[in-house]
Amino acid sequence: MNIQIFGFSKSFDCKKAERWFKERRIKYQYIDLRTKGLSLGEYRSIKAAVGFDALVITDCDTYEDLGLQYLTPQQAEKKLLDYPELFNAPIVRNGKQATVGYCPDVWAQWE
Q1: Does domain 3-102 have CATH number 3.40.120.10?
Q2: Domain boundaries, the chain
Q3: What pLDDT score does 34 carry?
């Protein structure tokens, strides 16, 4: 398994996800969304696995201020990569598989 956890350092769900993998001694790579963000390839891979609606927080002020509700998901990609706070976290990826949020039932099936 090649686990990557994309998240925010102060998010409780991200800390729970890290703890879940640590308790099972599963190695993972943690990527802080605020400092590193997602690359375009990572974004597209995760979006293909979970969908745009699950990946992006659409009911926040930043989303509305940027006018993303008026753009198609393809048009919004570039702006989303510049504003990582719009992503739901944690994003846990295992190759082509991915989850958004705390999903230990799904992660257990990856083992």
Answers
A1: no
A2: 3-102
A3: 92
Give mean pLDDT, residues 13-42.
94
The chain-wide mean pLDDT, for the chain, equals: 91
What is the arithmetic mean of pLDDT over 55-81? 85
3-state secondary structure of 28: strand
| Cα(49)–Cα(64) distance, integer angstroms | 25
27: left (phi over 0), alpha (psi -120 to 50) or beta: beta
* pLDDT of 108 strictly over 90: yes
Give dist(CA 90, CA 73) in Å, integer.
20
Give the total residue count for the chain: 111
How many angstroms separate the Cα of 97 from the Cα of each of 16, 34, 71, 83? 19, 22, 26, 23
Lookup: tokens for 76: 């919004």
Token pair in block for residue 81:
């990569």
